[in-house]
Write a sequence for this structure.
């Protein structure tokens, strides 16, 4: 039975072997990847909020915010 002795090991470790009564495994495994359908809703572009001043000497600072639904 095959054994492996790594640096620092005092006792060799034995490698597990496949059961002889089972058929051999295929060498290559094939997997089919499926893509999820795209969502029908697209995120809306960010539109800035505008404020209207009642007096001309009043200044406003735009605050950017994002809302998630």
């Amino acid at each position: 039975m095959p054994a492996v002795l790594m640096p620092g090991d005092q006792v060799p470790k034995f490698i597990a072997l496949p059961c002889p009564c089972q058929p051999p495994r295929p060498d290559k495994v094939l997997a089919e990847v499926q893509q999820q359908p795209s969502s029908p809703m697209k995120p809306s572009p960010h539109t800035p909020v505008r404020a209207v001043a009642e007096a001309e000497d009043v200044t406003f600072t735009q605050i950017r915010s994002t809302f998630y639904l």
About this structure: The longest strand covers residues 3-4. The two ends are 61 Å apart (CA to CA).
